[in-house]
Amino acid sequence: MGLSSPLLVLFLLSWSGPLQGQQHHLVEYMERRLASLEERLAQCQDQSSRHAAELRDFKNKMLPLLEVAEKEREALRTEADTISGRVDRLEREVDYLETQSPALPCAELDEKVTGGPGTKGKGRRNEKYDMMTDCSYTISQVRSMKILKRFGGPAGLWTKDPLGPAEKIYVLDGTQNDTAFVFPRLRDFTLAMAARKASRVRVPFPWVGTGQLVYGGFLYYARRPPGGPGGGSELENTLQLIKFHLANRTVVDSSVFPAESLIPPYGLTSDTYIDLAADEEGLWAVYATREDDRHLCLAKLDPQTLDTEQQWDTPCPRENAEAAFVICGTLYVVYNTRPASRARIQCSFDVSGTLTPERAALSYFPRRYGAHASLRYNPRERQLYAWDDGYQIVYKLEMRKKEEEV
Hints:
alpha+beta; Neuraminidase; five-stranded antiparallel β-sheet; 21 strands
C-alpha cells in the first residue's frame, strides 16, 4: 500500500500534460469561431443599416410623388364627375328633343306598296296579311338594357328558342362558321370560362352572315351554295335556306330562297344577305334585291317546308340600316351611323295594315353607342337579344296596343 500511492500520483502527473495541450487547442478553436461569427454579425448589421438608409431615402423620394399622384387622381375624379354630369344633361336634352321632334318616319310608299305599276305579279305579293293570332301589340319604347358579357368576335348571334326550353342559350359566333355553342342556362353563359360549360353543335354547311334563327328545336340559316353570291355562275346572288335539327344533328329540309340578285339588306351589315326572324305569327325573312336596291323586302315563311307564303316590298330604306326584327307582324328596322352612334327604330312596316306610320313609335335605344350585328326578338319574354361588337346585350321592351295613339 505504501508503494502504490506514489506510483498512482506519478501516473496521473504523466497524463496531465497531454490533456492540458488538447484543452488549449480547443479553446483557440472556439475563439476563432466566435471571432468569425462576430465578424459576420457585424457585416449583417452594416448591410441592415445600409438597406434601412436606402429604404428611408426611397420613402422620402416617393412620398412627394404619391402626394402629387393623389392630387392628380382627385383632379381627374372631379373632372370625370363633371363630364359625367354634363353627359347626363346632354342625354336628357337629347331625350327631350327626341320626344318633341322625333325623326321623320320612312314613308316612301312610292307605287310598289300602293299597288301601282311597280307591283309584281308573282303569287301573293304586297297583299294584306291575315293575322293567325290575336297579337296586336307594338313597341312603345326600348325601356332598358343589360350587358351580359363579351364573348366571341365583333359579329355574331345569341338567342333563345321561343318554342323550346326557356333557359337554353344558343351562341353563333362569326359570319362564316359551322359550330354553334349551346349553354344549358344563362348563368353558365355568364361564367368567365363559359365555353367549357357549352356543348358544341356542328352544322354540315357554314352559315353566311348573322341572320340565323333557332325556332322550335331547329336551326334555320342561309348558306352559300356553289356558285352563290360571288360564285360567278347562274346561281350568282342566290342563297339556300337550311333547316337543321339540333337534337338529331341532321338537315331535315333545304330550299333555294325565291329571290333573284340578292344584296345585303342592311347598309351597315354587309355580310348578311337574309335575316331570319320569329314572332308570335311564325317565321319571317328580311332581304333585299338589286331590282329595288333602296328598300327592304319582307317574306313570310312556312317553318315546316321553308316555302314562301307571302312577300312585301317595304318602304324602309337600306341606307344606314343595321338590323331588324318582327313583332306581331310588324317589321321594325334599326338604323345607325358610321362611326356608330345611338341606334334607333326609325322605320316600321305592319303587314296587316293595322299600325299606321302616324301611330308607330320611333324609339331610340338606351344610352349606348355601338353597332348591332344582330337583333333577335323573343316573343315569350318580350325582349331583344343583341350582339354589339362582341358584347351580348338584352333589351327590355315596353309594349302598347297598335290602335293606341303615340
